[in-house]
Write a structure and sequence with these properties.
The chain is of the alpha/beta class and 361 residues long. It folds into two domains: 79 residues, Orthogonal Bundle (DNA polymerase, domain 1); 264 residues, TIM Barrel (Alpha-Beta Barrel). The protein is 42% helix and 10% strand. The chain is elongated, with a radius of gyration of 22 Å. The termini are far apart.
Length: 361
Amino acid sequence: MKPRDALADLRRIAFLLERANEATYRVRAFRSAAKTLAELPAAELTARAEAGTLTQLPGVGDVTARTVTESLRGEEPVYLRRLAATDGVDMDEAAQRLRAALRGDCHTHSDWSDGGSPIEEMALAAVELGHEYLVLTDHSPRLKVARGLTADRLRRQLDYVAAVNDQLPPGFRILSGIEVDILADGSLDQADDLLARLDVVVGSVHSGLNDDRGRMTRRMLTAVANPHLDILGHCTGRMVSGRPKGVTGPGDRGHRARTRPPSDFDADAVFAACAEHDKAVEINSRPERQDPPKRLIRVALEAGCRFALNTDAHAPGQLDWQRFGCERAARCGVSADRVVNSWPADRLLSWTRSHDEPRGR
């Protein structure tokens, strides 16, 4: 294929990032790379791209080097393609369409673990929002700070949820679930027989968030391959500062505004595994999480992943935070047909059961 203009592609990416009001440092990275590479003779630029030595130049990182290499091969760079997918789209309208398509929420907490409200209150709030189902995903045993459920407490909760479902309005139901910790070796923090009884299993890393890249990648790959896991929760573990205008404190235990850098892992490998095993990547709507960041949502989208647009709600009012996740998802070109909680409950359950047939549900 005929080579593209690599410098023009870098500048176009910077322009689209800037127009989308992305972080200044990200815009600067592409403009700086374009400035550095503009000083090279065309032959040297091509030779460095073929030899993989572009990153030896000042201002050229892995992402910008990959972009240039793809351009010189005659390919539209993946980064540019992801941005172009949402170019010119009315984001408010796209986010509203996505929100309207959602039928439930697959990641919520009650006062059985670190939530602030009883299960019944969470369910009735979901009914008022027009949901058809709510997946209850209280924490697993090792997260003691969040009052994680032991096996015995989880069994009692399953019986309790069955009784509550009998009292809820017709057409709505609570689905059983758990947010299970992904342990250091990638195993899941609950007994297999109990995980097999649950409707939806969200797996998240809550400890060892500073593991090195190789260890964290192996840990996540092991978890994604586990047949009991359905959704990979808040995959980077990051906390960002601030909340959208008008959002006050969460009013639940253990969630205070603070910052925390994202974990380091091979996103290409992890999201490829999610696509291979047909597991969903969570787009966590909590304003202090915004996890994954948009660049990783685009990587997961490119990998062919499904998504779960969840609130991680710890109080009834937080169930309306899905709109924040929808805004971020829309900016990345995520459509409703890629989101598992846009499905009716029966289709959702058919999908989760397919991961581990028979699951004994």
